[in-house]
């Protein structure tokens, strides 16, 4: 695990425990509290994060329901855990099956721990200049976070390089979310598995999704990208039924 202190308030924890898939947890320190974006794979993985927080109030954010973003929730049982309304619902149903399918990645303790504050459209934390908003794309429950003080946009798994995972057939909503990102005055864009994205990456992803929707033939350089693209194609065709 690597800790990268980007500026006075922003800190990135990067984990390499999952094969070929670096995963990032972010913390944003504000005057009266600390926001923790995603909780990776269990209590053990959250120890360095908790050490960095010290005694401040903590608001945990789950960007979406996938196991590699929520299993550390039980390290924050006393704190507020915020997500989209649908994230809580899906997690409630899928908690056990996600454990069953990926248990080799558990780090420490993983108890079922659902979000305690949910929203539908957006939620503003005015004194901290932070907004959380629904951004369906990678999954239907995905949310994003914008910190207006540092002009940093956190997009969960909606952007990823070299290729995104489409796990929801609603491509029109995905494209709409990416167009919304373009309206934010973001100077930094961070995703759950990729750092330092740019507005060009957003535009490239919109183009990819439009090509996917049209069924264009797309060439890739690696087997990994071809495999994910095949899965994405399947998801799109299922979404159209
Ligand atoms: Zn995901």
UniProtKB/TrEMBL annotation:
UniProt keyword annotation of NADP present: no
EC number in record: 3.1.2.6
One Pfam family here: Lactamase_B
EC class (word): hydrolase
GO molecular function: hydroxyacylglutathione hydrolase activity
Annotated InterPro entries: Metallo-B-lactamas, NDM-1-like, RibonucZ/Hydroxyglut_hydro
Keywords: Hydrolase
Coiled coil: none
Database matches in Gene3D superfamilies: Ribonuclease Z/Hydroxyacylglutathione hydrolase-like
PANTHER family listed in its UniProt record: ACYL-COENZYME A THIOESTERASE MBLAC2, METALLO-BETA-LACTAMASE DOMAIN-CONTAINING
Name of this chain's protein: Hydroxyacylglutathione hydrolase
